[in-house]
Amino acid sequence: MLNKIDIHNCTTSEAKVMLDNYIDSLSPLVSEITVIHGYSSKVLQQYVRKQYHHKRARRKILTMNAGETIILLK
Questions:
Q1: Where in this chain does the record put each Smr domain (predicted)?
Q2: Which of 30, 18, 38, 17 is nearest to 57 (CA)?
Q3: Is this prediction's pTM over 0.90?
Q4: Which of the pair, 40 or 23, is modelled with greater confidence?
C-alpha cells in the first residue's frame, strides 16, 4: 500500500500540522511515506527536505521527481 500525502497549496505551518497528524495516524508497521509538495515555488520542497522533523522520521530520500520526497519512518 502506498502512503502518500499531498500538501500542495499549503503554507509551511499548515504542512507541518498535516504531516504531523498524518504520520501520527499511521500504523507503526508503515515504514515510508511519499510527500507530494510540488516544485514550482520551492518553499514546500525546501521545508520538507531541509526543515521538517518528526520523531518517527528516520531519513529523507530525494526522488527523480522534484515535486516529491520520500520520508523513511522508524
A1: 5-56
A2: 30
A3: yes
A4: 23
